[in-house]
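A reminder from the course coordinator: this example appears on the midterm review sheet, so study it carefully.

Given structure:
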């Protein structure tokens, strides 16, 4: 029959948040005047695929189909965004128009943008799409060469890198052999465990280093206040050197977020280091939290399972700082738009640094502060009380004397500190083994605190005295207990004692000293 419809189908995916949904690419070729329509809730970039695909087909040496072409991206109620459907549309179009014969096309998934020359270009979000294709049992997935290593970290599905449209067609016809790409996840994670800057280079600051060790061991938020040049930023930049290594599961979780954001670096298919994000203080609310017309992860999600460092914290806009409260409390961010809601994980350790006043020298023995009391309070009040309440450990970083600076470094190495941190984290991993929502002490909920922070009479009295002395909120009460639990874990103790409580409460006094 001259008017018979010819259909071809393959699969791809649509990214929503950090996950992907299955998308069927159906192409129908029928007789009639040449037309090219794409339906299925495509955005502008997808609609423009008809021009890229048509030109790429011609420049790849295939005859452009002169038929009525309809491309359906199903399900029709899921918005399709970006150029990732160019390659599957082109392959299905040629198959539906009888220009090529592809074997078992419906068993394959394809992802890739097409250049006008027919070259297959890198796209973002490949990792969650390949995970989804594995879930639905596809035979294999064809991806751009530049995305191949990233896609290969997914076990259980074959990943085939292709450079051009012609190469993809030849492979699907059985005329070209392409070796699938595989990745050894354990080897990748182990190979990336370097330390970077070392705490052994830090002179003095023993009090600050102790607080940082406790913060990292329990995943607690940390605020450092001190005059310019006292070492706040230097200390913060060395925190990655004592963070426990990512597990394979955590590495995949972090990599998926960075894949969706399109910020994976070339040659780094798997995130093997815990993220350390340090946005500039001019960062917008959307830049920190995520969002935009087409929602993307923000800094709080890019720092997932790692550290978000806010240098000069009061210089950030008040709105930008206030949006941190919800992800700090809930561990995820929900971005709502008309088209739907995207959910991004955001379990990170907040490390912040700030000066005590606008000029930076309030309380400095060697410099005179030029700020009035009103100016100091105005500056500090850019950081709200509710946000401060969510910062478990607050310390003052004092300037280092010349005598200390002139000496050779004598502090512990990051490797030594990291060993203690990992022992404490191992205790917490065993403690919360049956609870997938809690990974460290900072994430304990009320029922966990009751269960794991039991106090004897002496310790209860010490806590009561501290609470009454500092007039702490109910949230601060919980956070003191969480930090005390971490101090006990570092000691290797099963129970929290009064000394642990006193140390944890001592790190809650800074906001009372500076914000009054």
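Designed residues:
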């Amino acid at each position: 029959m001259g008017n018979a419809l010819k259909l071809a189908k393959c699969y791809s995916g649509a990214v929503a948040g950090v996950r992907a949904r299955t998308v069927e690419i159906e192409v129908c070729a029928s007789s009639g005047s040449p037309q090219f329509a794409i339906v299925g809730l495509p955005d502008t970039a997808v609609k423009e695929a008809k021009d890229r695909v048509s030109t790429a087909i011609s420049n790849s040496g295939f005859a452009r189909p002169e038929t009525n072409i309809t491309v359906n991206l199903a399900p029709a109620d899921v918005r399709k965004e970006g150029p990732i459907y160019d390659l599957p549309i082109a392959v299905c179009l040629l198959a539906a128009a009888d220009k090529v014969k592809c074997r078992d096309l419906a068993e394959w998934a394809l992802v890739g943008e097409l250049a006008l020359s027919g070259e297959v270009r890198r796209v973002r979000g490949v990792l969650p799409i390949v995970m989804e294709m594995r879930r639905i049992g596809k035979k294999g997935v064809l991806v751009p060469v530049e995305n191949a290593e990233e896609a290969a970290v997914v076990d259980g599905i074959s990943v085939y890198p292709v450079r051009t449209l012609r190469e993809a067609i030849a492979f699907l016809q059985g005329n070209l052999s392409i070796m699938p790409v595989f990745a050894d996840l354990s080897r990748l994670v182990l190979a990336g465990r370097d330390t970077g800057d070392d705490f052994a280079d830090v002179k003095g600051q023993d009090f600050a280093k102790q607080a940082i060790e406790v913060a990292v061991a329990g995943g607690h938020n940390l605020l450092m206040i001190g005059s310019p040049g006292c070492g706040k930023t230097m200390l913060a930049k060395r925190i990655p050197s004592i963070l426990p290594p990512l597990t394979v599961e955590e590495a995949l979780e972090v990599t998926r977020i960075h894949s969706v954001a399109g910020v994976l670096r070339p040659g780094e298919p798997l995130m093997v280091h815990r993220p350390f994000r340090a946005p500039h203080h001019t960062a917008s609310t959307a830049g920190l939290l995520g969002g935009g017309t087409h929602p993307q992860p923000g800094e709080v999600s890019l720092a997932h399972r790692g550290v978000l460092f806010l240098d000069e914290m009061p210089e950030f806009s008040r709105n930008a700082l206030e949006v941190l409260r919800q992800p700090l409390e809930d561990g995820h961010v929900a971005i709502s738009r008309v088209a739907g809601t995207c959910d991004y994980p955001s379990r990170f350790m907040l490390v912040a640094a700030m000066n005590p006043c606008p000029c930076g020298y309030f309380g400095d023995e060697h410099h005179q502060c030029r700020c009035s009391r009103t100016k100091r309070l105005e500056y500090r009040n850019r950081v709200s009380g509710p946000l401060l309440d969510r910062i478990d450990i607050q310390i003052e970083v004092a300037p280092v004397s010349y005598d200390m600076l002139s000496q050779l470094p004598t502090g512990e190495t990051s490797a030594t500190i990291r060993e203690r941190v990992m022992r404490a984290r191992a205790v917490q991993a065993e403690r919360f083994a049956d609870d997938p929502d809690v990974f460290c002490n900072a994430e304990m909920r009320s029922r966990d605190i009751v269960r794991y922070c039991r106090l004897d009479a002496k310790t209860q009295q010490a806590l009561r005295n501290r609470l009454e002395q500092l007039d702490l909120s109910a949230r601060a009460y919980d956070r003191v207990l969480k930090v005390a639990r971490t101090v006990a874990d570092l000691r290797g103790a099963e129970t929290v004692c009064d000394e642990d409580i006193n140390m944890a409460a001592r790190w809650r006094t800074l906001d009372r000293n500076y914000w009054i």
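The longest strand covers residues 19-30. The mean pLDDT is 89.
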